[in-house]
Amino acid sequence: MKKWNLVIDVAQCFNCNACAMACHDEYFGNEFPGYAAEMPRLGHRWIDIRQRETGRCPVVEVAYLPVTCNHCDDAPCVKAARDGAVAKRADGIVIIVPEKAKGQRQLVDACPYGAIWWNEEKALPQAWPFDAHLLDRGWTKTRGSQVCPTRAMRTLHVEDEEMQRIVREEGLQVLHPEYGTRPRVYYKNLDRWTKVFVAGSVAGVLDGVTECIEDARVVLERDGRALAEARTDPYGDFKFGGLEAGSGGYRVRIADERFAAKALDVALGESAYLGTIMLEPRAAPTRAAG
Predict the structure, then answer these.
(1) What string of H, E and C letters represents the secondary structure of the chain?
(2) Common-topology check for domains 2-193 and 196-278
(3) What is the pLDDT of residues 63-77, one digit of tens each?
(4) Of the CATH numbers 1.10.8.100, 3.90.1710.10, 2.60.40.10, 1.10.3720.10, which one belongs to the domain with range 196-278?
(5) pLDDT tens digits, residue range 161-213?
(6) Do residues 216 and 249 touch, judged by C-beta distance below 8 A?
(7) For a pLDDT cut of 70, what percent of the chain falls above it?
(8) Residue 257: how many CB atoms within 10 A of its CB?
(9) Average pLDDT, stretch 88-105?
(10) What is the residue extent of each domain of the chain?
């Protein structure tokens, strides 16, 4: 049986908020019995675009992460609900049934992703229902994926085997796999959100002028083992990404035939910019006594 899935490419999201605005347009001022009660005008972001900055000037990376109901196959909200207030459909979609969920604030706390919102006026927990009312009428895309200008959001209606093939081929991940909830919202390039980097700039004196050193060989090591290698660009810059935050000590080795080799140690917490690294002239060879 085909089931609904959402794929979000973190590298393509630039915080335009088109998906969030489309969601607000769809649910504010509208009631969809059996699917969703009206969304409040203010205070709810059923598609919540979160922002993360890492690094320091002049090398800073900004990533945006749209977070919404993950429509988990092992959804904690289903377990926390009373009287059938949350339904897991055969097509994978999770619905907080508005006619049954009134007063069940425990559903907000049950969601480990913070994707269930409390409507104080209606005393109702609410979450994005995957635009199920539209899909049930024949739509093939959610409104968010329909309006995304960079195609960062994709709606897929495929069988589980096909979805797992796509996961493997595209390197997709889910948020917090350690929760064991088996989400149906997948992320591409999630390292942009979860990982950190080491970067720096290499310079040296050539013909009496301080220059950016292009094409210097830079090696990232840990415990004496090379993890990655890069070449500096025309501005002397290099960067190693995809590193674990708080992963501790690394060594950066820099080599250029015109200069003496240099090594720097860095203790990695968050992303680290090593600044401008000046290379020293290669020592002149000593002459043997005649």
Answers:
(1) CEEEEEEEEHHHCCCCCHHHHHHHHHHECCCECCCECCECCCCCCCCEEEEEEEEECCEEEEEEEEECCCCCCCCHHHHHCCCCCEEECCCCCEEECCCCCCCCCHHHHHCCCCCCEEECCCCEEECCCCCHHHHCCCCCCCHHHHHCCCCCEEEEEEEHHHHHHHHHHHCCECCCHHHCCCCCEEEECCHHHHCEEEEEEEEEEECCEEEECCCCEEEEEECCEEEEEEECCCCCEEEEEEECCCCEEEEEEEECCCECCEEEEEEECCCEEEEEEECCECCCCCCCCC
(2) no
(3) 999 999 999 999 999
(4) 2.60.40.10
(5) 999 999 999 999 999 999 999 999 999 999 999 999 999 999 999 999 999 99
(6) no
(7) 98
(8) 8
(9) 98
(10) 2-193, 196-278
pLDDT tens digits, 125-153: 999 999 999 999 999 999 999 999 999 99
**Which tens digit of pLDDT belongs to each residue from 221-244?**
999 999 999 999 999 999 999 999
Q: What is the mean pLDDT of the chain?
A: 96
Residue 289 clears pLDDT 90, i.e. is over it: no
Give the end-to-end CA distance of the chain in Å, rounded to a whole number. Answer: 87
Distances (CA, A) of 42 to 24, 127, 232: 10, 14, 48
Q: Which residues pair with 228 in a beta bridge?
A: 220
CATH number of the 2-193 domain: 3.30.70.20
53 close to 60: Cβ distance less than 8 angstroms: yes
Residue 103 falls in which region: left (phi positive, over 0), alpha (psi -120 to 50) or beta: left
Residue with tokens 């720096």: 200
